Amino acid sequence: MTPSREKQKEWKERDILTKNSSQKEKSPPWIIDERIRELGDWRGKMLSQLRRLIKQADPDVVEEWKWRGVPVWSHDGLICTSETYKNVVKMTFSKGAALEDPSGLFNSSLDGNTRRAIDFHEDDKVDEEALKALIRAAVTLNASRSQDQSS
Q1: What tens-digit pLDDT sequence spans the chain (151 residues)?
Q2: What is the distance of C-alpha 43 from the center of its chain?
Q3: Long-range CB pairs of 83-86, under 8 A, 24+ apart, other chains included
Q4: Residues facing 137 on adjacent strands
Q5: Phi and psi of 34, rounded to 5°?
């Protein structure tokens, strides 16, 4: 069951407070900041850019750190994850198969019934407006499914 929007905001505020308090309790945003610094190369820059675009597209997004080191963004359910590999930064949309992709951003995990992904390589240029539209569509899809479940 997906936490309510109010609960997600509460967690987000708690994460901000935790980030500013003891380093023993590291919030997901702090851990993601650390991961970006730790990468220190084009992958860190790409992850930082993707994160910025996610936050621009949905200022109410909740950042999480799951599955042994995967940044996750949620709003009324999982929106996307971003994994870093040696030659690619992969942005996976959990319900990507249900999203319209008029700009053709999805270029990976195209065979599945649920997920879709975008693989970003070192010199790739990000179509920022198209990506933000895709993120907003994922948020809208989550909200519509959340409404259906609460009805």
Answers
A1: 555 565 555 555 444 444 444 444 789 999 999 999 999 999 999 999 999 999 999 999 999 999 888 999 999 999 999 999 999 999 999 999 999 999 999 999 999 899 999 999 999 999 999 999 999 999 999 998 766 666 5
A2: 15
A3: 84/35, 84/39, 84/43, 84/47
A4: none
A5: -60, -40
Cα within 13 Å of Cα(58), Cβ side: 27
- Retrieve residue 53's tokens: 């675009």
Taking the whole predicted model, whether its pTM rises above 0.85 is answered as no
Tokens of 149: 């479940």
Structural class in CATH, domain 5-150: alpha beta
On whether the CB atoms of residues 115 and 97 are closer than 8 A, the answer is yes
Distance CA 4, CA 9 (A): 9
